[in-house]
């Protein structure tokens, strides 16, 4: 039986965020690095009370090497500001650190492609290491991929968004696991929504729950 891909050998066992970010640049834990421009690690302070986790970097993030700097990131900035949350005090990252895409037929545009379960598992050691260093009190899952990865495969963002939950037991984190978790939609879904105003208000309402907590 073939050994499943994992980033674990690339994750340093000591050092802070800088050491993790530098090591992540050489990650070959799955095949996504082959097409992506670069690793896109998380950004923000450590420790941080709030940690936002999305699915993966997008086209703009892949080019710039920073998370949440494209259209969805700008919309998230606006929602955070309206909710009274200072983005600079929060840590933002993704479940998967490389951009997965397919090229538009007869064009240069790169179309986002959802990471599969094996790729998410392969990248999990990086997310675990970030949680250990950042030590957030509240984790906000942005979208279904992040929510299912952290809260269980049966979790439904549609049914359970905007609700503060106890963060599940994670053996690797032990007593240092976050206290609470909340899931909401990914800001990219708001950008694409037919009724963008209504979708934005829904995201804002969820973030206001986080702000009050």
UniProtKB/TrEMBL annotation:
The keyword Amino-acid biosynthesis does not apply. Residues 41-204 form the Uracil-DNA glycosylase-like domain. It holds the Pfam family UDG. The keyword Protease does not apply. GO terms for molecular function: 4 iron, 4 sulfur cluster binding; deaminated base DNA N-glycosylase activity; metal ion binding. GO terms for biological process: DNA repair. Keywords: 4Fe-4S, DNA damage, DNA repair, Hydrolase, Iron, Iron-sulfur, Metal-binding. Belongs to the uracil-DNA glycosylase (UDG) superfamily. Type 4 (UDGa) family. This is Type-4 uracil-DNA glycosylase.
């Amino acid at each position: 039986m073939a050994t499943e891909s994992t980033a674990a050998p690339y994750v340093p066992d000591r050092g802070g965020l800088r050491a993790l970010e530098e090591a992540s640049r050489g990650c070959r834990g799955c095949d996504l690095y082959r097409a992506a421009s670069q690793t896109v690690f998380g950004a923000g302070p450590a420790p941080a009370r709030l940690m936002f986790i999305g699915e993966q970097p997008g086209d703009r993030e892949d080019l710039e090497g920073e998370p949440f700097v494209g259209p969805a990131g700008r919309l998230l900035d606006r929602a955070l500001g309206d909710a009274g949350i200072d983005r600079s005090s929060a840590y933002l990252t993704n479940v998967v650190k490389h951009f997965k895409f397919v090229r538009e037929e007869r064009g240069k545009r790169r179309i986002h492609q959802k990471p599969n379960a094996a790729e998410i598992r392969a990248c999990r050691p990086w997310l675990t290491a970030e949680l250990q260093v950042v030590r957030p009190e509240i984790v906000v899952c942005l979208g279904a991929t992040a929510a299912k990865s952290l809260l269980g495969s049966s979790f439904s963002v549609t049914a359970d968004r905007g609700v503060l939950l106890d963060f599940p037991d994670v053996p690797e984190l032990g007593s240092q696991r976050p206290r609470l978790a909340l899931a909401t939609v990914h800001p990219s879904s708001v950008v694409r929504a037919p009724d963008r105003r209504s979708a934005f208000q829904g995201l804002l309402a969820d973030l206001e729950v986080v702000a009050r907590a």
